[in-house]
Amino acid sequence: MNALVLSAILGVVMMFSGILLKRPAAIRSVAIIGLLLLLASNMLDMSGTRFFSINLGDFLHFDRFAFLFNSVAIFCVLVYVLLTGKAIERVGVKNYADYFALFFFVLCGIFLVTSFQSLLILFLGIEIITIPLYILTGSDKRNLKSNEASLKYFLMGAFSTGLMLMGIALIYGAQGTFAIEKFNLLKIPGSPLMIAGMLLMLFSMAFKVSAAPLHFWTPDVYDGAPTVFTSFMATVVKAAVFIGFIRLFENAFGLLQPTWQLWVALMAAATLFVGNITAVFQQSVKRMLAYSSIAQAGFMMLAIFALNGDAKEGLLLYGAAYSLATIGIFSVLSRMDDYSYESFNGLAARQPLVAATLTIFLLSLAGIPLTAGFLAKFYMIKAVVATGSNLWLVVFALLMAAVSVYYYFRVIQAMYFREAGEHSASFQEPGKGFKWVLVLVAALIIALGLFPSLLLNWLYF
Amino acid sequence: MIALLLILVPLLSGIATFFIKKEQAARSWAMLAAVVTLAVSLLGLTVLNKANYLSFHATWLPELGSSFSVGLDGMGQLLCLLTSLAFPLVFLATWRRSYPNGHSFFGWMLLAQAGLMGVFLATDALLFYFFWELALVPMYFICSRWGGERRIPVTFKFFVYTFAGSVIMLVGLLYVYFSAGNSFAMHDFYAVRLTSKEQTFLFWMFFVAFAIKMPIFPFHTWQPDTYEQSPTAATMILSGVMVKMGLLGLLRWLLPVLPISSYAWGDVASGMAVTGIIYASLIAMRQDDMKRLIAYSSIAHIGLMCITIFSEHKTGLQGVMIQMFNHGINIIGLWIIVEIIERQFGTRKMSQLGGIAQKAPVMAIFFVIIAFANIALPLTNGFIGEFLMFNGILNSTVTKYGVLLTVLAGTGIILGAVYTLGMIRKTFYGEVNELTANARDLKWNESLALTIIVAIIIVLGIYPQPVLNLTNEITDTILKNADVLSIKK
Amino acid sequence: MIHLLQANISTSAPSSYLPIGLQIAFAAGLVALLMVLTHLLGPRRKTSDKLQNFTSGIESHGDARQPMAIKYFLTAILFVLFDVEVIFFYPYAVNFKELGWAGFGAVLMFVGFFLCGFIYIIKKGALKWED
After folding, report:
1. Full residue range of the structural domain in which residue C96 is found
2. Å between A20 CA and nearest CA of chain C
3. Is residue C103 part of a domain?
């Protein structure tokens, strides 16, 4: 609750800081301090120090899982602001503070989605997350691609929101309540209204996390949006919606698992297939990362499929590992003026440290041991194997992970094994702080890859 | 303690190497680290050969049912000795070779050594998988960065093949993990009883991963290209040490864990291996490139070891272990000669060479001895290994096709003699041409490396008893766990 | 047996959908009926004046699809926004006594946020008509 209220207030503060402060560096400092405050207040909340005593009724329930993910999300946004905050200036200095305000509002939505207890709050949270994203996508007003992306995202997003509302309405019709705790699935386990509502919810959530076959908007939107904002919405936001997804399906539809499990399995397999295979054929690293985010979503879908303790822990780890690594890659990408693979040629010779950290991020995404990405994938497949059946899904997922090595390693190959040529893009010389944060993130990824308990123990102690 | 040191010394010194900027200093440092590792390995074999020194346990990922457990058994001792011997030999033999960005080359080499040691030492399945992948990454970087012209796609193929195989193995490991009561420990894996249906699909999940690594026909297609394109120092490690990962996998993680399916499907695997032997030998005869020839000969040798493993006979298994060591030593010797030739003449094509023996007699003597060991002439170490292996296959009660396999694999040996001797004839004898006219003999570092190798070849060829003693106990353990015939009765 | 979808139909008999079916049929039928009826019953005299576009008694001229200053939209949207927010005062006015001071505090907060937005808009120059 602390973080929820604070994030809304901080959003307003950021809005006015743009009017009061003129220097971008000052605005950025305010945002960083705000994020630190938010992180601290959330940690305090987790350890029992609550600033507000409000009867939340059936609307919200903050549990340790939600708190921990909120902390991860705030931390990731902090890392994101530290790494790419300066690059946002390139999108537009005039509305600089407003972008940060939108980040805080998105965080506010994330806190709602991770701890909703009523379908209304879920809807509200999803909307609070997505509306700022429409704005961020179209923020590069002079760029036609950005405009197109924004419009596409808005139309498709509105459509999926409609689906979700319809689903909620049908479920209300079946259950007579929005509170997921009061759902009575035993009495009438499979009334058509309930099933139809649940399927609509499934599809709209799948749309939000860009799971196939509802992924079509993703590449265009991620490619068209300014790179700095793609980094934001492909990572923290996606992970957060997954938390909402698993919460919805565990708490609301858990008893209907036999009904939807096969659907989710097929969707996960399709997502993995489409994401990985299409990513192979991309020529632009940015577009490749868009497809890679679809592929990673496929892996996270496995958690929803399995829906056990391992799956929840794994999803948390996956969200952290995936977000951190992708934010790191995008932060480097946003400093280049060309996004083709060739532009990475010979980067290792010019920027050894940046190349080394980037390699760690890519290895983590590919799921090579010793990185958090491996353990995250490991948790996922462990959760699925634990369900006993459906080994085919695991084998398929891992084969697709092997495919993913192809496109992740192309970047490594370009950086290390190819000479810098005429295609190599100019790389904006990074400052000391940028490098330190990159090293810190890389170290964190390796630390989580060795000792996931560093993160997951917070769930229990 | 010894087991931990064997991993830690190369790991830490490898990381340190990246920060040494001067190439010569990095090379000396790497050599020092490799020699220290060798010393540790020898200590483990002699003075500190006690159970409490040889294994090490630490808590790690307890929530996943895993732990950092490493330990040395007879097979581990032998393979770790091979690993710790191979790296100083490689560094010694390539002492004069300069690499661009040399310090990171030596750093990656030492990291590869740490990974390989981990694979040979791990007594926990998840840890085994960890090291299995970690050994791969440094080799990938070495081969892609310092290799030949087509290095990037070729090495990448190698990486993806191995990675794809290993992730499938990971599913298998997880399945056994759940059956073993949520534990990755080796003894729990050995104790688990799986139905024959489960064992069948698990067998193929494991076998494919190991078969890609060894490689066994038809999973071998990455191998000749990779050996050809890699820098020779990396090829030595790949062929001398890394293929043993697959064999060790079969012996430690397949036979004892899945005895029923090893019994049921062993003949199929043997059939694939024997096909590979004949196929690789025939192709080797037609090769002009020395590196490719040796690469194909390696497929044939590994194939024989694979057949022997599935014949599950004590003599044979001891032969396999001794031969794993010998093959590593011999093939490193061959690569060293090839490396010298390539550096001197700028070509590996046998058709362009000839008559080197007249100009470089010492090298010729070394080469001939190593080649004899490679084709298993008596009094060389290769003979001991292959004799024991054929003995095992013929006397095996597990496979019904012992005689047939022996005959076919024996044909491979004869073909091996044909192409190996052919290689000697074409390169070292015959007419001297203008390319080889001013060939020089060995430098001190090359002589030293080859002397060590030849000494091992001859000593083990005459007196293999210490190795047989070393592997006695572990073969019994493996066979005890792999025994299904007595259960059937 | 693989079920893509499991639904337990038996608990709700088909007959219970009768009212919904009737309603749909009635709605669709009424629309169709009215359209057909007006078409049949009404007399038709087409003149050129009657077929012209007609808005608020002003004769149309030019093309409707010409670019227009974004400020019109902005002002219109802001009007709608504030207009809608004002609606929330109605339920408060009705329940003024019941809600007491707590309700007053809540509404004060609401107005505060409201004001923040208003100040922000003015400061951002959204209502400045001339550049």
Report:
1. 70-124
2. 10
3. yes
* Residue C21 belongs to a domain: no
Residue C113: closest C-alpha in chain A: A12
DSSP B398: S
Domain residue ranges of chain B, discontinuous segments joined by +: 1-257, 280-489
Is residue C91 in some structural domain? yes
Cα-based distances in Å from C9 to A183, C1, C17: 19, 19, 12
Contact A325, A361 (CB under 8 A): yes
Beta B55-59 vs B67-71: how paired, if at all? antiparallel
CB < 8 Å to B144, chain A? 413, 416-417
Q: What is the DSSP letter of C58?
A: B
* Residue A204 to residue A160: CA distance in whole angstroms: 5
**Portion 406-425 of A in contact with B at CB < 8 A:** 406, 409, 413, 416-418
CA distances from A149 to A128, B162, B391 (A): 19, 39, 71
Residue C86 located in a structural domain: yes
Q: Do chains A and C touch (3 or more CB pairs under 8 A)?
A: yes
Using a CB-CB distance cutoff of 8 angstroms, which residues of chain A are in contact with residue C11? 188, 191
Look at residue A128 in the predicted model and tell me its pLDDT: 94
Test B174 with A370 for CB contact under 8 angstroms. no
Note whether A454 contacts B: Cβ–Cβ < 8 A.
Answer: no
What is the domain count for chain A?
A: 1
Along chain A (461 residues), what's the average pLDDT of each consecutive run of 10 residues?
89 90 91 94 87 82 91 95 90 87 95 92 94 92 90 93 93 87 71 87 93 89 92 92 93 85 91 93 92 93 90 92 94 87 86 91 92 92 85 89 91 87 74 91 94 85 71
Number of structural domains found in chain C: 1
CB contact under 8 A, C9 and A188: no
- Cα(B481)–Cα(B474) distance, rounded to whole angstroms? 11
B63 touches chain A (CB under 8 A): yes
User: Could you give the C-alpha distances from B362 to B347, B365, B432, B450, in angstroms and in order?
Assistant: 20, 5, 17, 10
Q: Containing domain of residue A138, as a range? A: 2-459
* Dist. CA A288–CA C44, nearest whole Å: 62
Q: Does A381 touch chain B (CB under 8 A)?
A: yes
C95-131: pLDDT as tens digits: 888 888 888 888 898 888 888 888 988 888 888 887 6
A108 token code pair: 């506010």
Other Cβ atoms within 10 Å of B370 Cβ, number = 25
